[in-house]
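Q: What structure does this chain adopt?
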Amino acid sequence: MSGIPQNSVPINNNELIVTNGNNNCPHSVLSDEELKLLAKLEEQNRIIETDVKALNSLQSNSGHSRRSSDTSQVSEISQMNSESNDQDLSNGRDVWQIWGQLINDWNNQSKKNKTLQELVRKGIPHHLRGMVWQLLCNAPNCSVRDQYSDFLRQSSVCEKVIKRDIARTYPEHDFFKEKGSPGQEGLFNVMKAYSIHDSEVGYCQGSAFLVGVLLLNMPEEDAFAVFTCLMQDYRLREMYKPTMAELGLCIYQLECMVQELLPELYMHFQSQNYHTSMYASSWFLTLFTSCLPLHIAYRVLDLFLYDGIEMIFRISIAILLLCKEDLLRLDMEGLLRYFQKEMPSKCETDPDYLVNLCVQVKYDQKKMKKLAKDYQTVKAKEQEELVELRRLRTENRLLRQRIENLEHESAELADKLIQGQVCRAQEAEDNFVIKRELAAIRQQELEAKNELE
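A:
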C-alpha cells in the first residue's frame, strides 16, 4: 500500500458514505449492489493474499527466499482453493453486510456484542478498518480533535527529536521512505500535535510506529484523535511517561505469565540471562507495529482496540508458544537475533492461527490485578530500600568527608611532628657545636692564664 486508503463513515441503516483520506473528494453513497461488489473485491484480495502466503510457506520449507515467486506453485495453490471460492465469496458478502449493519447502528451497539467480537477477531475488512478503529475507541467524540489545526500552528520542544526519528519509521514503506513525503509530514504533524497537547509525555521513541499504522488507514486529524484516545483510555499514556512505570508493570505481569504458562521456556530464558524486557518492551510500546509485518500488526490493533491491553499479553504468549521449540535451542545471541529476524516471518506463516492461538491463551483478570498489587508492593519496598540506600550513601559520603578531613589533619600533625623533630635535632647539633666551641675557649683561657703566671 503506497498511499492512504479510503475510509467510511455511517449515515443510516442501509447506506455507507466513503471518503478519501488524502483529499476532499465529494461523498458518494454506496448502494447494496455496490456494497456487494466491494465485498467481492475484498474477498478476491483476501484469496490472492492467501495464495501468496501459502506460496511463501512452501518456499520457506524448501529453503528458498520468501521474496522469490513461482507461478506454477501459485497456480497449484489457486486450484486447490478454487472449489471453496464461491462459498468464501458468499461468506465475504455476508460479512460486509453484517459490518455495514453494525457500523450504521453503532450507537446502539455494545462492546460486549458477541457478533462484533467474532468479526473483530476474524479481522476487520481493510477498507472499513480506519473507520471501525475510530468507532471502537470513540475517536469521533474526542474532545481535542478540533484543536489539531491549532496545535500545528504552534511549536514544540520535541520537534528536533521527532524529525530525527521519522526517517527510522517504516523506512522501506513507499508512503514513508521519501524525505518530505506525505507520510513523513503526517507523522511529524501528528507527533508534534500530541507533544503540544500532552507536554508531560511529550514525544516517546517508538510511538511513531503506532501513528504510522494509523496514518496508513485514516487522515491526519483522525489519526491524531485515535492516538489521543489510545493514550488516554488504553494505558498507553502511563506507558510513555518518562518513568515508564506502566511498562515495568506490564513486563512484570508478562514474565509471571510466562513462568506459569511456559515454565520450560521461562527456565531457559533464566539460564541464558535473557530478561523479558529484552524482547517484550517494544511489543508493549509499539503494540507490535515495529515487530510484525503490517498486515499482522493491523490484526493486532483490531484486537487491541476491542479488548484492550490484555490482547497484547495474549499475543505475546501466543508468539512464544508458536516459537517455543525454536527458542529452546538458542543461546543469548541466538535469542536476540531470532526475535528480530525470524519471529516475524514465523508469525506471518499463518496469521489466523496466531490470532486463534492468542484467543485461547489463559488470561485471568483477577490474577493480573493481584500481580499489579504485588508489583506495586515490590516497587514500594524497592522505593523504601532506595530511600534507605540514599540515606546510607549520604551518611557514607559524610563519613568519607570526615575521614578525609581527619586524614588531612593527621598528615598536618605528622608534618609538624617531623618538623619539630628536625628542629630539635638541629638544635641539639647546634648545642653540641656551641658546647665544643665553649670548651675550646675555656681551654684557651686556661692556657692564657698559665702563660701570664
